[in-house]
What does this fold into?
Amino acid sequence: MSTDDPAERTERSEHGDEPLDDHDSSDPAPSRSLRRALAAVGVLTLVLTLLAGGGIWFLTDRYAGNIDRIANVFDDLDEDSRPAPPTPVEATAEDPVTFLLVGSDTRETTDEGVAEGGRSDAIMIARFSGDRRHAQLISIPRDSWVDIPGRGMDKINAAYAFGGPTLLIQTVEQLTSVRIDHYVTIDFQGIIQVTDDLGGVDVVVAEETSNGPYTFPAGVNHLDGDQARWYLGQRYGLEGGDFDRVRRQQQFLQAMFSKLFSSGTFDDLGRLDGALRTVTAAVAVDDTLSDADLLSLAYSLRGLRPENVESFTAPVLGTGREGAASVVYLDEVTGERMWAYLRSDSLAANAGEFGDEALPDVPR
It folds into this structure.
């Protein structure tokens, strides 16, 4: 069992909640997890959408050279015991593609692809459907109490600490019976810089709230990168706590994607260049995904729009304690329905069954 539990450490800064890019080790695990979840979703989606707009540019060393490769992620997995690949709903569709996203404090990795410090701050499954017009992003709480192959019951992020991306992939595949095709690590700093590159984004605040040096009045707020750090990093003063933070962050992503598609990014080579350089510098992928493969996937996703990207959390029964650790207990029954739809690439058509796990449009 993991004994160094960041969730048990002191949470409050004397200056209020920390901004999104703070790396203070006293920041509790749940808040860091939610921040990295934002980064993971935002950076991956931006990479894919921007590459679709940038086309051949990605094939140059200017961009491909920015993306690190993590070696040997899938080499030690037993193919005979892994889940079968998902099948397209329509015979004419392409094969669905599933990523495991891990957000961490730094993109610096060991030879085994483990972020320095050995921690996974956000864990998400990203599925691009066979029709390439839908995507699902499912967050698995980092404190989820699961069976880790060869280690027994522990928090799911302990799998990353014990055995890096390979053991984490094994754990997620065992939990969900969903096959993971590729592995991505994200440095969340890029998402903030892209916000500034876009000239800021508009978010709707339901009730006035303050954090750090900023007050966010009820109604439409135009946020630059620094304001976004504080807005998205807020942990206190939200009625729903961390759940409101997740909803707030997902709303911010929706607003950012809408700005991306309406801001002329793909018509302005200078802006496109800056966005590509920023985003690709924040990404590392497994070495089975070549530059050509990534470009091909990005191009196939050219019809994907933000309104067709649905965000969920793995169904949760509640929270509790295992020894000294605070943990999250997953709902195995509801979860199995979600994973079954994901395995058959039909979650988009059945998303309404998981309303409690979907994130609403306008949070506090």
Summary: The mean pLDDT is 75. The first helix runs from residue 29 to 54.
